[in-house]
Amino acid sequence: MTIDLTLLPRVAHRGQEITAPRLRGLLALLAGDLRTGCGTERLVAGLWPDELPERPAKAVQVLVSRARAQLGADVIAGTPTGYRLTFAEDQVDSSALLLHAAASADRARAGDHAGSLAAAEAGLALWEGTPDEAYDTDDPVAALRTERAPVRGTLIRARALALARLGRHAEAAGPLTAAASEHPRDEEVLVELLRVEAVTAGPSAALMRYEAYRRDLRETLGTDPGAGLKAVQRELLRGEAPVVRHGVPHEPNPLLGRDEDIAAVRRLLSASRAVNVVGPGGLGKTRLAHAVSRRAEQRVVYFVPLAGVTADEDVAAEVASALGAGEGRAGALSGHASADPVSGILGVLGSGPALLVLDNCEQVIRGAADLVQALVSSSKDLRVLATSRAPLGLTSEAVYALPELGLDTSVELLTQRARAARPGVELPPDAVAGLCRHLDGLPLAVELAAVRVRALSVPEIARRLGDRFALLRGGARDVPERHRTLHAVVDWSWNLLDEDARAALRTLSVFPGGFSAEAAEHVFGEDALFLLEQLADQSLLTVSDTPAGVRFRMLETVREFSASRRAEAGEDEEAVGRFLAWARDFGVAYHDWIFGSEPSPSSRLRSGREGPIAARERVRAEQDNLVPALRHALARTDGPTAAALTAVLAALWSTGSDYPRLTALAADTGPPLSHYHPEPEYVEVARAAAVLCTASLFMGYGPHVVRQLVTLRRLPPAPPDTLVGATAVVLSAVPEMLPPDYEVLRKLCDSEQPLLAGVAECVATYVWEYEHDIDRALASARRIITVLAPVDNPFLQVMGYARLGELCLKTEQGEAAYGYLKACSRRCRGSAASTTSSASAGASPSPACSAAIPMRPSTGCGRRRATTPGTSPGSRRWGRRRWR
Predict the structure, then answer these.
(1) 593 CB-contact burial (10 Å; exposed 0-12 / middle 13-18 / buried 19+)
(2) How many CB atoms lie within 10 A of CB 152?
(3) Superfamily of domain 245-327+338-401
(4) Cis peptide before 740 (omega within 30 of 0)
(5) Which residues form the Bacterial transcriptional activator domain (predicted)?
(6) Which stretches of the chain score pLDDT less than 70?
(7) CA atoms of 315 and 437, how far apart (whole Å)
């Protein structure tokens, strides 16, 4: 819903404020009834209440013309008797307010209290900022606001009722009390108020309010309360157990960004006997459990922290003691109390619905699991909510993985806590958002960072975040010791791991971009899956489904902690070596993915071979690992790994048209690869890297291409029966493609090898275009399609149609260009489709076409001047930063 015309908080059309008094009055009068509008006589009376103009109808007509000139000719339409606005009801705030009120009431009648709440809050948001002072009834805008003011009261009432019916008693108490004071005979409000007071203040307070209302009603009207109120009174008088919230503290400050999580956990509790909220330390599991406990539908709730329990066998006794059922309770010495802690716990909880919350179970998982199993098997109405960094492993358990805070919530939290720490602190929005992006969405990390504003600015905090464990310390005194520093939070989980899992975490921290199960198996062998399960169970790894398959990720906090432990153990060299071995094998496996064809589903199942689209997803998923791996390979002069990763990354960035990053990569890897003499098994890997880098540098965005050509021409020749081989032949011949005859190019175009002829014709299209022979360029582009028709490669098929479309656009053959580009689009599938948009701009969807683009006879085999800022031949330093 988009509000185009606002009249309540201010008078504005599409954000532009309207200040002319009579124009404001005209809009207010017409907004009074959008459907029928307003007659001319009513407009005259409302706009000129004191003195009529000489020609009233003409004056209205002039005012309407002014409105149309300022707001748009179609904003006001004429009617048989006057004028009306052309907006829909949901485009004008005064009418949308009525729609929200009606929707809230309808949804409440249907039992959709969440929908009723949403509609009421949307309506109240429209009223926000509307002046509260007494209105001048001669002002049409003020009169309209006065007319709509009762609707605001209706929405406030609807919101209060919805909050109460959703079980959000603490939030509903104040609005319901205010509504009952304003309308003391509104028994629907009183029913919900009694129920809310029974929960928040106790049944006796609710009964006292009922009795006071009953007496007043009898004395003033001689009647009794309605059936609904009497039913609530009977419920309270039946002697139901009072609300018990043992060990559940009130919130010290608002809990931000967790409403959906609270609702999700409550839904799980209504369907499952045991619910376990899991997640890494510092994520706010305890705060969430407190919030769920306060809003629980069970009248009896006990909250028991287990962080101080270190032995599994002590769990039941600790819980019994917290509930007053331990050895020190009344009756224990006299022999009337059971020595079994489980029986004692059940005796305190009673036979009715109850909720037991066990907080911080991860260090006593087995003891907590045994207790939960015994309790839920002995009491049909008991629910157990646990918080832990690991699942309990019970069939009765529903696990809720608590997500990290979103960026907006992190920014809001940091802003609140920073202003609490230093009220006058400057909080530049961009700097705050940038800082929060590096805090993993952990509320604890955000709060610890916010505290540092007492001595540092936000940019200074961000700069010091490289040593986050030294920076993020010194938490509040009213939080547990294990939450006073970020280091203590991670160390708590680290100490729960066995040595094999710790060693795995140290090694896996070398992967900055997450990793797949296959990568872990490459590093650890057949034990990898078992180790991954252990780490994921302790919430030290997060698991997510991606287009490239299941991937594992560490929070940056966990990764930095593990990396520091790796350095302390002297394992950096070994870990980087394993990382490079994986990266080399990955690069070799995917070095030519861009040159492949898309297999049919049946052949893919038979061969297990991926097509270029699926391969691109895998490469994209690993990009953040491959870049640092290449940096390590160059530092170690590891030629095979550098060649393989150069080929993979160059292919990825060429299909994404990321030419500055691509040419910077080619510039930085050119010198080391030109001195690399590949072993036989790496020759084709090195050829693919040289082809892609040579093609990218021929684009003209970077340094000289000589080193890449030297590398390419030094490799053993390969037959042009593959796209890599054909492109290599064409690129190697570029120095001999000289005007005016271009004899070498002509011979390549006449080749009987379809791949060789197709790539050469692509080059020729640019040569002939530069020579102003467009007809010849078009003929070469059409021949690309002809000679490459038998070749099953989506990028090659795209290449010919894209080039034809580009040439037709340049010669103003729009209809033909549309047809070719549409054919190009049909041949693009999945991620390859993104390359079609660059065709009309001269960018290429394939490496072969990329190689052809810069061919300019005036410079022989040379380069065009760089046209992208910062990518000139002298910008090597900038380029190095770009790809890294």
Answers:
(1) buried
(2) 19
(3) P-loop containing nucleotide triphosphate hydrolases (3.40.50.300)
(4) yes
(5) 92-237
(6) 1, 133-137, 239-243, 326-339, 466-484, 596-611, 699-705, 793-794, 828-884
(7) 38
What token pair was written down for 533? 């399960």
pLDDT score, position 337: 41
Looking at residue 273, its pLDDT comes to: 93
The two structure tokens encoding residue 47: 């706009």
Closest to 855 in 3D by CA, of 798, 756, 771, 753: 771
- Farthest CA pair distance, the chain: 114
Rg (CA), the chain: 36
Encoded tokens for 775: 């007809």
Residue of 512, 547, 491, 511 whose CA lies nearest to 438: 512
Does the domain at residues 1-166 carry the CATH identifier 3.50.50.60?
Answer: no
Residue 860 has a pLDDT of 36
Domain layout of the chain by residue ranges: 1-166, 245-327+338-401, 407-490, 604-884
| Token digits of residue 514 | 């997450």
DSSP for 344-394, please give it.
HHHHHH-SS-EEEEEE--GGGHHHHHHHHHHHHHH-TTEEEEEEESS----
Q: Note the helical H segments in 525-611.
A: 528-537, 556-568, 572-590, 601-607
Alpha-carbon gap, residue 883 to 592, rounded angstroms: 20
Are residues 756 and 843 in contact, defined by beta-carbon separation less than 8 angstroms?
Answer: no
- β-strand pairing of 16-17 with 12-13: antiparallel
* Residues sharing a CB contact under 8 Å with residue 411, sequence separation 6 or more, in sequence order: 429, 432, 433, 436
Question: Token pair of 483, please?
Answer: 């939450």
CA distances from 283 to 218, 401, 453, 633, 884 (A): 55, 11, 21, 37, 31
The tokens describing 739, both together, are 């005007």
Closest alpha carbon to 724 in 678, 693, 679: 693
Q: How many residues does the chain have?
A: 884
